[in-house]
TrEMBL record:
Pfam families: Asparaginase. Residues 6-155 form the L-asparaginase N-terminal domain. SUPFAM superfamilies: Glutaminase/Asparaginase (SSF53774). This is Asparaginase. It comes from Marinobacter halodurans.
């Protein structure tokens, strides 16, 4: 991968959830990123790596360390992390001291596999952010680029905000 490449780390979360109607349950499935990228005709080269497939509420400190290690060891200068929205900011804060890379975390409020979802918009927005932002760690959600030191999820309103 050239130094202009992109690493996409997938961790699960709502963006990759699959709904089982018979059980009225969700489970985390394979990453939807390749399908979103195909439909959006993404032209920039990328490498896809699954760290794990979990709901972010089930993530542990060890999981966040696995994400951190994947980012640090990446040869690519740009890293997109698809992540569950409930603890996305917590993970982003864990990455703040990593230098030499532009890191953007994004996710979805509704699974990508659903007809009405914010997943394609958020992924596209995050890809654009990755190409224009200086090195650092960011959260890209709801058409906003947020500093994880000030960001929070407003569960009642279903959006991300800054303090």
């Amino acid at each position: 991968m050239s130094d202009n490449g992109l690493l996409v780390l997938t961790t699960g979360g709502t963006i990759d959830k699959v709904y089982f109607d018979a059980k009225s349950e969700f489970t985390t499935g394979e990453s939807e990123f390749p399908e979103i990228a195909r439909l959006a005709q993404v032209q920039m080269p990328y490498r896809l790596q699954s760290v794990f497939r979990k709901d972010s509420l089930d993530m542990t400190d060890e999981d966040r360390e696995a994400i951190r290690e994947a980012v640090i060891s990446a040869v690519e200068p740009r890293v997109l992390i698809t992540h569950g929205t409930d603890t996305m900011v917590e993970t982003a804060r864990r990455l703040l001291d990593i230098t030499g890379k532009t890191i953007v975390l994004t996710g979805a409020m509704q699974p990508s596999r659903m007809r009405l979802t914010d997943a394609p918009f958020n992924v596209g927005f995050a890809l654009g952010a990755l190409q224009s932002l200086p090195e650092g760690v960011y959260v890209a959600m709801n058409g906003q680029i947020l500093d994880p030191r000030k960001a929070r999820k407003n569960r009642e309103a279903g959006r991300f905000e800054t303090d």
